[in-house]
Specification:
This protein has helices spanning about 1-30, 35-40, 45-50, 60-90, 95-110, 115-125, 130-150, 155-160. By secondary structure, the protein is an all-alpha fold. The longest helix is centred in the N-terminal third of the chain and has 31 residues, at about 1-30. The chain is extended.
Length: about 160
Amino acid sequence: MRSKRAFAITVAALALATLFYMVTTLFILGTLGLELTVLTPWPLQLYLNRFAFALLERFDVVFLIVWAFQMVNLISINMYTAANCLRGVYPRLDAQRSALIVLMLVLVGIAIPARAAIQSIIVKQFSLAALIYYGVLPFLLLLVAILRGKKGEDRDEQKEMA
């Protein structure tokens, strides 16, 4: 029963976010037209610059704030859904590990450059040794912490120093 409730909440949240984007798109297409919408790099900003209020001179700033919150909300919903699906496929996987796996996959997807030009700039700025160092060092430190078995608990030396 709990998974049906989580599924319903997830579907409702995604439906609301999709509805917001659909209504915004329809407003822009209805006001600016298809030709101007396609030619303008930021059609929503052009649409919002048409409005001016006595209290607020630039209405597009308000939308930018709302848009940022909605993007965070949409990303959170998608990551929660992906972690939930991962737990459904692998039932022995706990919630924290499934969320961590999804987060790692998202970070890997972000880290891969989308265009070859960006990739060549990155390669020119960072040498292979630096990429290996920054990519391997956190995992080596984690491995050392696991091998030592400390996992964040207080040691006697820490208590004596405090």
